[in-house]
Each structure stands twice: as structure tokens, then as C-alpha cells.
Amino acid sequence: MTNRKSPTVLVAGGAGFLGSHLCEALLARGDRVICLDNFLTGRRRNLRHLEREPRFELIEHDVVRPLPASLRRRPFERIYNLACAASPPHYQADPEHTLLTSVLGARHLLMLAEAAGASLLQASTSEIYGDPEVHPQAEAYWGHVNPTGPRACYDEGKRAAETLCYDYARAGRVAVRVARIFNTYGPRMRADDGRVVSNVVCQALAGDDITVYGDGSQTRSFCYVADLIDGLVRLMAHEAPGFAVPPVNLGNPVELTVSDLVQRVLAMTGSPSAIVTRPLPTDDPRRRRPDIARAQELLGWAPKVPLDQGLKATILWFADEAEDGPRGVVV
Ligand code: NAD
Ligand code: UDP
């Protein structure tokens, strides 16, 4: 379907795990989608099934660099900024590039949004709360981030990107939305992503040792990808007086320890894998759970997919996809 009235939407980081699901969801709504990605952690094969869709276009570009001039002539109505590696081993591999991706990437996309009169949604993160002293984390909490540690390139980059978004909004230059995304999992995570769900599932399926960092008592709250994408689309559609919708947490408030997660995956896969412990990475947050009252109130959003159902879909996907592929990356 090509419809001249289809809104044109830019998805920066659209070849990644979340971005590829977002591109798919927007095309299904009838939008025209332009995906911008440098393939740092994203993959062309995440988008292969969309290549023949006439409303879809893929542009290879690094958002650290000024955007291609040709984009300035496109009638964007909405811009989603998801461009940034999200897994600790990937974003720490080149910390300078990670920081610049968040800061300069947000600036370049905000400038484009201003020129086009488009709204911009910034994919922020629960990491802006750092190792939180407040539990669960509500949006009013300012966070507890180590500005000089190995996670700072990501956490502080995302914090600065939020700052820039609200500076543009306060000046009446761009209508912004900021989604603070909590740990999300599902099909199209990379087997070598390094995050806990992909590592544990791939290790269990292969019968390899399961790597638990620290004593496994640290907690996270895992959101299935379909729920998260629904939240992003609702947030973009949400209108508020003035230019700034306040930041909104998107995540699943069901909290569990890393050890609980491992036990569930072992039970679901029937894997004989043994558990081995590795040192807890520096600045690894001890606890994390979103307070989603704001998302419920503003967007009528709450996650629907229970962990066991989401894990089952993820395990099946990795069992198919990763048969001969790379194993989890251990930090
Ligand atoms: P991902 O690594 O799969 O996707 C990131 C995408 O951005 C990739 O396609 C990558 O190639 C692209 N990218 C990275 N740097 C770029 C650059 N300089 N120029 C252009 N493209 C670039 O990660 P994801 O899990 O899909 O995360 C997407 C977004 O959501 C990220 O901004 C991340 O910070 C945020 N987020 C994700 C989670 C999660 O649990 N998945 C949690 C919090 C926040
Ligand atoms: N983790 C683990 N084993 C792994 C990968 C991660 O125990 O193989 C731990 C990690 O130390 C953290 C939690 O699982 O406490 C979630 O890690 P992830 O990288 O998925 O997300 P983040 O730390 O960014 O929330």
C-alpha cells in the first residue's frame, strides 16, 4: 500500500533489536518508514523481510556525523531516536563513540525534527537512574550515576540527550517525548549481545555453562518486546500542552533476581547446563524495577505478556536462529 497521506517516520537505530520491531509496527499502521542505521549492533537481516515494502527505506549512516542533506527535504512527522548500542559489552567497546552517539546523535536528529516540524521520541533508559537509592524508580527520581565509571559513556550520554531534548522543548523548537526503557528482551536480540536474557538462553540451549555475574541476587524487571513497542507508539501519539511530554518509564514491574531468571530458563529448556559465577561488573545496579504509574495514567499502557510466555517465544526463536550461530558474550 502506498498512500501519499501516510505519515513519514524516521527510525534512527531501526536495524537493531527494538528498532526493527518498531519499523515493522509502524509499517503495519500504514506509515512510511525511513530507517537510519550504521549497523554497529544492528543487522540487515533484521529488516530483510521489509526490503520489498515500497513504504520502507534504509539509509546507512552514523548519527555522530551530520545527517545527509537529502533528509532535510523529507516531510517527517515523527522521529524516533533509538540509535545507540544498548548492551554493556557493546557500548563499552568504544565509549567515546557511545557518548557521542547519544549526544551528537540527539542533536542532529533534534535539528532535523526542528527543520521538519516533526515530533521526536528519544529512547532513554533506566540506566539514567544508575544504581538507584530509590526503589522502585519513578520518573521524579534524579538518579545515582557514577559519572566516571565504565557505564558512564552510556548513562551520562543518555542523560545529556534527555537534557538536550528538554532544552529544545522549552525553547518551543521541537515537541519531544522521552521513553525511559527498562530491560527488554525477545526475538532478534543478538546471540552475542551480552545481555543476561540472550546469554542465559543461548548458554542453556547449547548446554554450556550459565554465567551468573556476582551472587545472582541483583534484580531486574524484564519487559517483552511487543509490549515495549506498543508503549513507544502510544507515547509518540500522546499530546501534551506545550512542547514537552514528561519522561515516561516503560518496562515490566515484575522484578526478579538474576538467579530466578536462570532457574526459569533452565526449567523451560530442560538444559543440563551448570551455573558458574563471574565477578560482578563495576557499577552493576543492585536493584531495578520501574514505577509505571505515569505510563498507565498518560498512555493507558501496561505490559501484557507474562515472563514465561515471553521467555518461551525467545527460547523458540533462539533455538531456530542460533543453531549454528555465535554463543553469548561473557564480560
Ligand atoms: P541495539 O544495539 O540492538 O540497537 C541499537 C541500534 O542503533 C543498532 O541497530 C545500531 O547499529 C544502531 N546504532 C548504534 N550507534 C549508532 C550510530 N552512531 N549511528 C547510527 N546507528 C547507530 O539495541 P536495542 O536493545 O534495540 O536498543 C535500542 C534503543 O533503546 C537504544 O537507544 C537503547 O539505549 C534503548 N534501550 C534499550 C533497552 C533494552 O533493554 N533493549 C533498555 C533501555 C534503553
Ligand atoms: N548478567 C549475568 N550474566 C550474564 C549477563 C549479565 O549475571 O551473562 C547480569 C548483569 O551483571 C546484570 C544483569 O544480569 O546484573 C542484567 O544485565 P544486562 O547486561 O542484561 O542488563 P543491564 O545490566 O544493563 O541492566
Task: Report on the architecture of this protein.
By secondary structure, the chain is of the alpha/beta class. The chain contains nine helices and 13 strands. The strands form four sheets. A seven-stranded parallel sheet has the order 3-2-1-4-5-6-11, sandwiched between helices. Strands 7-10 form a two-stranded parallel sheet. A two-stranded parallel sheet has the order 8-13. Strand 5 (119-125), helix 4 (152-170) and strand 6 (176-181) form a beta-alpha-beta unit. Bound molecules: nicotinamide-adenine-dinucleotide and uridine-5'-diphosphate. Uridine-5'-diphosphate binds next to helix 5 and strand 8. Residues 9-243 form the NAD-dependent epimerase/dehydratase domain.
List keywords for this structure.
binds uridine-5'-diphosphate; 7-stranded parallel β-sheet; 13 strands; alpha/beta; binds nicotinamide-adenine-dinucleotide
Task: Give the topology, please.
Elements: E1 8-12, H1 17-29, E2 32-37, E3 56-60, E4 76-81, H2 88-93, H3 95-116, E5 119-125, H4 152-170, E6 176-181, E7 184-185, H5 196-206, E8 210-213, E9 219-221, E10 223-224, H6 225-237, E11 248-250, E12 255-257, H7 258-269, E13 275-278, H8 293-299, H9 307-321
Parallel strand pairs: 1-2, 1-4, 2-3, 4-5, 5-6, 6-11, 7-10, 8-13
Antiparallel strand pairs: 9-12
Helix pairs in contact: 1-6, 3-4, 5-7, 5-9, 7-9
The site of nicotinamide-adenine-dinucleotide (NAD) has 27 residues, from helix 1, helix 3 and strand 5.
